[in-house]
Specification:
The protein is of the alpha/beta class and 653 residues long. It folds into 4 domains: 47 residues, no CATH class; 179 residues, Substrate Binding Domain Of Dnak, Chain:A, Domain 2 (Up-down Bundle); 150 residues, Rossmann fold (3-Layer(aba) Sandwich); 217 residues, Rossmann fold, CATH 3.40.50.2030. 47% of the residues lie in helices and 11% in strands. The strands form 5 sheets. It has a 6-stranded parallel beta sheet with strand order 14-13-12-15-16-17, with helices on both faces. Strands 7-6-8-9-10 form a 5-stranded parallel beta sheet.
Length: 653
């Protein structure tokens, strides 16, 4: 620990596993610049709030219950600890679902205007996926043109936001047994706004006061995210901007170039980034940049929109959420433009210290002290051209020393359900049967999704790296999205050569296919790719009849946002054992805790888990995978037998 201004600051080596971020944090301290890690030291977490043992749903309180004796007293209105925790948890799910659903609606409206020709900057780049998606929703595509199919798809998906009764359209994509369970418990979503509105109404003071009933609405709302807004955002982005396929891309702060105009795009909506790509490739702006002494324009991504562009176009990626302030300290960032979600307000102060323009572009996310240049898809270049102009001007007047960490690690990104389908069987025999076969024969123990944020309460990236290393060492194939994917990419583990870190079975499969043991699927919204891949595994046969039957588990070891809770709940409701790190906003030993961590699984769903240590987390997931293997009767290894011709004649077909 170090003392600074009479405050004890943690050693920077204890804050992050990212070498580049460490270098920049050291520089920030010398420069007198505060970051999220410094603010975390100043801000002691509220222990009562951390476990949701407080209620501020009305002003008779706020009421605080003691987590050590949770049933020792109740709130002023009589609310029990279970009611209070369920309400708080429900509102986190509602906020996360609203964020993703809002993103999905924005993409849906963009898709409508692209389909009807009102926006010409974007096109339908993947008509094959357009047709496949229509067929999955049982829409008639016979003799229909691409615009006609797109219009029909838009009208069908709009129900996700407009209908008050029935079921959201993408429920048709889930396994039949999973849907049967949802219907039995009355948790199939009607529409995202309906579910969010109802959960907010139910959790108002004096309304729903039974934790089990609230939990049903929690699941219903979360499913409206995973099988609604988030899925719409992912699939329609693929149709408009291109479905990713594996591409080699560089990750880490070394992607910045001292002799170039460096422009960072940070956020979650891909359309801003797609338009920016057009501007930076415009010869007019390249010429201006060179006239100002730059070698050219360098477009770089951060966070989730960066992960999408990396997956689609191989655009270099500078780092995850934890590094968004630290990268400003390089002095090399000539502009950072942001849209929505995971944008720290603290960026304004750091940007000011290094004379970097911080530019907000979306009316849903303005920041006091930042410059706002509104992005309108109908005239997108008005915004992106101005951003680039300001970045070039800043390059020409750089006054701060430039210090860029040298590290930039290459990795393979851009895996999707569609590419995995092709990768395992080729154009004519594509499918998930080879994956299932290798799970059944034991070469692959199971599948794990390791996703989610980074959190300054945890050493950045450390839990992600340790967890994934332990999983692949034990023959578990790992799927990744979001900040977690970037953590492993910086570690150099998203390449086929990383197969040597895997157990013997997984290593054999990876070397045969030529794939990494960790597959990067894109942004945090793209967690829905994991849902569709899980559905494909069920449909391929041999691993049960619902997602809950699969030898699979999920984890968010460094989570921090309400979106993460919504994602976790839609995976649990879909049948996946989901383990979170850091902390968990529920008091142990309560009925609501028992329901989430045990009772839901007894009803046929997945369940929650929690551990701080990533190795413990890995073995909790492996134990669950082994339990599912035993239930399927595939837990015993089988010797490989070479058959001669007489043996083959005995086989009954």
């Amino acid at each position: 620990m170090l003392k600074n201004d009479d405050k004890i600051l943690p050693m920077i080596s204890d804050l992050t596993s990212c070498e580049s971020t460490r270098t920049m944090l050291e520089k920030a301290r010398k420069d007198g610049v505060k970051t999220a890690w410094d603010r975390a030291v100043d801000m002691k977490p509220c222990p009562i709030g951390a476990e949701s043992a407080c209620c501020k749903m009305c002003y008779m309180g706020p009421c605080r219950l003691n987590s050590k004796t949770p049933y020792g007293k109740v709130g002023v209105c009589g609310a029990t600890i279970d009611t209070i925790m369920a309400r708080n948890f429900a509102r986190m799910v509602a906020a996360g679902t609203a964020a993703h659903s809002d993103h999905g609606l924005a993409i849906l409206e963009l898709f409508r205007d692209v389909a009807n020709g009102k926006i010409s900057d974007y096109t339908i780049k993947d008509p094959v996926k357009l047709e496949d998606l229509c067929l999955s929703l049982e829409l008639d595509v016979k003799d229909k043109s691409i615009p006609e199919m797109a219009q029909a798809l838009y009208e069908e998906l709009l129900k996700t936001y407009t209908q008050l009764h029935g079921e959201i359209p993408f429920i048709k994509r889930a396994p039949a047994k999973t849907v049967e369970l949802w219907r039995k418990h009355g948790i199939v979503p009607r529409s995202a706004p309906k579910e969010v509105m109802e959960i907010m109404s139910r959790t108002h003071m004096g309304c729903d006061q039974h934790y089990e009933n609230i939990t049903r609405q929690i699941s219903r709302t979360a499913l409206a995210d995973g099988w609604g807004g988030s899925m719409i955002a992912t699939d329609l982005s693929d149709i408009m901007f291109g479905t990713p396929s594996p591409v080699l891309a560089e990750v880490d702060m070394g992607v910045l170039k001292e002799n170039m105009v460096n422009i960072i795009i940070h956020g979650h909506e891909p359309n801003l980034f797609e338009s920016m790509l057009q501007t930076v490739n415009d010869p007019f702006f390249i010429k201006i940049a060179k006239e100002k002494g730059a070698a050219g324009l360098n477009l770089v991504g951060m966070c989730c929109s960066g992960a999408e562009m990396m997956s689609r176009h191989g655009i270099p990626h500078a780092g995850n959420f934890g590094s968004t302030e630290a990268i400003m300290v390089t002095g090399a960032v000539d502009a950072m433009a942001v849209d929505i979600q995971c944008i720290k307000q603290g960026l304004t102060a750091v940007a000011e210290c290094y004379d970097t323009p911080l530019i907000t572009t979306n009316p849903r996310c303005m920041i006091e002290g930042a410059l706002h240049i509104e992005f309108d898809e109908h005239k997108a270049r008005d915004c992106t051209d101005e951003i680039v102009t300001k970045a070039i001007a800043r390059f020409a007047t750089r006054s701060k020393p430039v210090v860029i960490p040298k590290k930039a690690t290459k990795g393979v990104h851009g895996f999707t359900y569609e590419y995995i389908n092709y990768m395992l069987g080729g154009s004519f025999r594509g499918g998930y049967t080879p994956l299932n076969d290798n799970i059944i024969n034991g070469r692959i123990r199971g599948v794990a999704g390791v996703v989610g944020c980074v959190n300054p309460r945890v050493k950045q990236d450390s839990a992600h790296i340790a967890l994934v290393r332990e999983l692949i060492k034990n023959d578990v194939l790992v799927l990744q999205t979001g900040c977690s994917q970037i953590a492993l990419a910086k570690e150099g583990m998203l390449i086929p050569e990383a197969a040597h870190l895997a157990g013997p079975g997984l290593r054999e499969v990876c070397e045969a296919v030529g794939m990494p043991p960790i597959l990067g699927l894109g942004s945090c919204v793209d967690n829905t790719r994991i849902l569709i891949a899980a559905t494909a595994m069920v449909k391929a046969g041999g691993l049960g009849h619902s997602i809950a039957d699969l030898p699979a588990a999920g984890a968010a070891p460094e989570w921090m946002s309400e979106k993460a809770i919504a994602i976790g709940q839609y995976f649990v409701a879909s049948g996946v054992y989901t383990v979170f790190g850091v902390g968990f906003p529920i008091v142990k030993g309560t009925k609501f805790h028992d329901l989430l961590f045990d009772g839901l699984e007894k009803q046929g769903f997945g369940k929650w888990g929690h551990a701080v240590d990533p190795i413990e987390m890995a073995h909790m997931m492996i134990a669950h995978i082994d339990k599912k293997r035993a239930a399927l009767g595939i837990d015993k290894s089988k010797e490989r037998v070479l058959l001669d011709m007489s043996d083959r004649r005995e086989i009954q077909i």
